[in-house]
Amino acid sequence: MKTLAAGLTVVLAALAGLAAFTPHQPARRSPPNILFILTDDLDAAALAYMPKVKSLLVDQWVSFSNYLVSVSLCCPSRVTTLRGQYSHNSGVRTNGGGNGGFELAYASGLEQSTIATWLQATGYRTALYGKYLNGYPATAPARYVPPGWTDWASAVAGNAYSEYNYTLNVNGRAVRYGADPSDYGTDVYAGMAAAFVRKAATAGKPFFVYLAVYAPHGPATPAPRHAAMFADARAPRSPSFDEVDVSDKPAFIRNRLRVGPRVQAAIDALYRKRLQSLQAVDDAVARLVDTLRASGQLENTLIVFASDNGFHLGQHRMPTGKQTAYDEDIRVPLIVRGPGVPAGRTVGHLAGNVDLAPTFAELGGAETPAFVDGRSLVALLKGALPPATPWRQAYLVEHWPQQRATADDSLREPSDADQAAPRPRRAQRGRAARALLRGGGARIAPDALPGFHALRTARYAYVEYVTGERELYDLAHDPFELNNLAATASQALLGALSGQLRELVACAAATCRMVETKRVDGAR
Q1: DSSP labels for 199-222?
Q2: Cα 324 vs. chain centroid, distance in angstroms?
Q3: Judging by beta carbons within 10 Å of its beta carbon (0-12, 13-18, 19+), is residue 304 exposed, middle or buried?
Q4: Residues 100 and 401: beta-carbon distance below 8 Å
Q5: Against a cut of 0.85, is the pTM above it?
Q6: Kind of pairing, strands 207-212 and 301-307?
Q7: Residue pLDDT tens, the chain, 524 long
Q8: Contacts of 100 (CB under 8 A, 6+ apart)
Q9: Are 475 and 521 in contact (CB under 8 A)?
Q10: What distance in Å separates the CA atoms of residue 519 and residue 512, rounded to the nearest whole number?
Q11: 35 strand-pairing partners
């Protein structure tokens, strides 16, 4: 009995010691804050000219080398980002004109369920500063604030793309900004984001901040402090710049003249302005990192830096624009820094803007609605995928022409130079150059780029146009998409890619993820 009693005494003492030790275990980490910085029309190459983004994000954290946008156009891309849906499912396919724009999102009730409403329901304080959906507020009340946002500031009048002389709806109140240096848009939105971070930190609530700057979208107005930078810079002359032989390209490319010296000079001038305008974004990133650090929030904040679409600058004979299926337009930066994210890592898995909303939802402990097409990237941020976990093998890219012009098209988004008539005469080249320098304004030809559906795999880019034309590029051997293989590739490969593309065009929710995991590009 004494032995048993002694044994019980030892066990009880051990349990007591364990109980006493438990409160000193590390506390469970609270849900992470999320700072999402979305640039407008940022091409991947321009990151090299953003030293603060490079040192604070790119060099030390995770970069996605195969991050794609499903529609390379502002409003469809932003709806996809907010809801995790391909555009053929959201219905928002363009920037306006009946098949897109804020009006369609508003009328369809899409804003009732977005990443903002999902996170807010779990206790997050949410904020959006800057560009929302093209056409906002259009058919909504003048001081309309979409559901899910604790704090809100987005332009409702003026031309916010110019960075000056615009009016913001600030939580239902109209606030006008003029032409003083202090009114420069990127700085204003970054200042609001920093103030919100400080307030949220004091309140002790997790926060989601969506900072949506207009840079480097045309007219790419730089802040005065950056206007003299990059005086000698010129747009990259990749092998596809002013492509010499386009005989294997679709008609919308074949019909274009070579990019002459005047247009090249205008491309370079716009490129310099784009780099200049990005310096304020670079400053904003550093400012927000400093704010997070000073408020004690940096170690528990996920910072995500991306773009709504890419941008071409002279590639394939197109002066400037973004709506094609070529790599310059659809492959954009995605950089992630935050708790548990390994440093200095490049992820090559196929990922896209359809994945952002489910990723943010998982991080914030929010329920992802059944309509979501994308998948969470959290597993790619934390470590290698388990061997048995299938990942996406194909990503869908789409484009539809806008059904009709709208009265405010030039304000909802300045037009790009390659939206001009597809076969400009020599006299029109001067007008194209002038259009580039003023950030668009060329005569719109909606049928210049046909509608298409495209498929991207780790190796191939495959495109089917409504004209019946096709493109196929082996990206492993032809990263600049110079040699169209559609006429010479095996029927087995073409049939497999076309079949998977048809399935993706018709997919919704879980079926999208299922179809994407099929690997069909092994044949040649």
Answers
A1: HHHHHT--EEEEEE--TTSTT-PP
A2: 15
A3: buried
A4: no
A5: yes
A6: unpaired
A7: 434 344 434 333 433 333 332 333 333 458 999 999 999 999 988 999 999 999 999 887 899 999 999 999 999 999 999 999 999 999 999 999 999 999 999 999 999 999 999 999 999 999 999 999 999 999 999 899 999 999 999 999 999 999 999 999 999 999 999 999 999 999 999 999 999 999 999 998 999 999 999 999 999 999 999 999 999 999 999 999 999 999 999 999 999 999 999 999 999 999 999 999 999 999 999 999 999 999 999 999 999 999 999 999 999 999 999 999 999 999 999 999 999 898 888 999 999 999 999 999 999 999 999 999 999 999 999 877 767 678 999 999 999 999 988 877 777 888 888 765 444 444 445 555 555 444 443 343 433 799 999 999 999 999 999 999 999 999 999 999 999 999 999 999 999 999 999 999 999 999 999 999 998 876 44
A8: 75, 76, 92, 93, 94, 134, 400, 402
A9: no
A10: 14
A11: 209, 303
> What is the DSSP-derived secondary structure letter of residue 499?
H
The span from the CA of 214 to the CA of 40, in Å, is: 5
Which amino acid belongs to residue 1?
M
Annotated catalytic residue, options 74, 75, 507, 512: 74
Closest by Cα among 312, 323, 359, 290 to 95: 323
The answer to whether residues 470 and 462 touch, using CB atoms and an 8 Å cutoff, is yes
Q: Is 75 a catalytic residue?
A: no
Q: Are strands 67-68 and 351-352 parallel, antiparallel or unpaired?
A: parallel
Q: How long, in residues, is the chain? A: 524
Could you give the CA distance from residue 94 to residue 110 in angstroms, rounded to a whole number?
15
Which residues in 195-343 belong to E strands, given as ranges?
207-212, 301-307, 312-313, 320-321, 334-337
Residue type, 84: G
Residue entry with tokens 């935050």: 338
DSSP letters along 367-385, please? Answer: PPPTT--S---HHHHHSPP
